[in-house]
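User: quick one, fold this
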Amino acid sequence: MPSESPPSLGLLGIDGIHYYVRDLERSRRFYVDRLDFALIGERGPDTHPGDRPRARAVRAGDGGVVCATPQGDGGRAARYLKKHPDGIGTLAFRVADVEHCFRTLESRGGTPISDVEWLEEGAGSIGTFSITTPFGDTTFRFIERRGAPPLYPGMRERPAPEHNRFGFARIDHVTSNFQTMMPALLWLEHVLGFQRFWDVSFHTRDVKAELRDGSGLRSVVMWDPESRIKFANNEPYRPNFKRSQINVFNEEHRGDGVQHVALEVRDILATVRGLRAHGVEFMPTPAAYYRALPDRLVELGVGSIEESIDELRELGILIDGHGQGSYLLQIFLKDSAGLYSSPEAGPFFYEIIQRKGDAGFGEGNFRALFESIEREQTDEGSK
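Assistant:
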């Protein structure tokens, strides 16, 4: 007899991220002034005396971010920031039935931090609990809302005018880096019930075998087919493990953790053009990438695209696909340490993605970017 599928957790989607920072005002300027997120809630000494973290909640589309900074030495935010630079302390998920989710996770070997806690506030109630994870010091929180409670209980709500002019829709996926990712993959499979979606391995020696150093990674994407929540998981790839970009993240973050969060948009050209005008900085793309792009699109079987290559080059947007006319467009913001010229701001960054029928993760861009960098270095050496 065929084995039965494990019971679903009843995940509905990613509710948002909780980001521990040292400079709360700097975070407000980034999200509200530059990304045009709406500031919808605040918590401070006037609402919560004592050592509870000061916090601000912002939101655009279905994606929420709570930035928190400690007051004094107590509390989880303070403990996190003693070990790490600024980073993601919690990922929050919406669930259909929080009690069922709790029982299912515990039966599979999950490690709850507390029992389910219910809070009555506003015109409804919220049930929630958190668990530990193999994602370094990042915990997962599960939330069920009944009725119409506030999104962030305990915060002073801030009525905000219309925001989100850049069209952020939702969190597309979360990417985490590990020195060894197998424990996380097994945990996602056997505790959360996720399935393997996609994987790739790549190293600069694949492009130029005589390289003595370089960088590489192995990546596996796990997903929950019901909610379509996706986690991309990376580890360094030999040879030159220590030089890998993934290991560099681990050293800078001082442990495993969330490297970036991808935000889906409806029109990436308009989004990136607007963000650049607001002073948002992106990772650069070598010019050689765009010189090779027409041939790459043929090799990928993408065919014609709606955007012009000149526009993509001007804005630094990457493209990838899997044939049959489907493709995706993506670009990466500079990491926080680079944005603020401060290692303690952390190596976390955002990706912006627009999907045009392609459900992949831009694996062709790993190879194309590495190849482009090699060509660029060769061109510069011949001048």
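User: anything notable?
Assistant: The radius of gyration is 21 Å.
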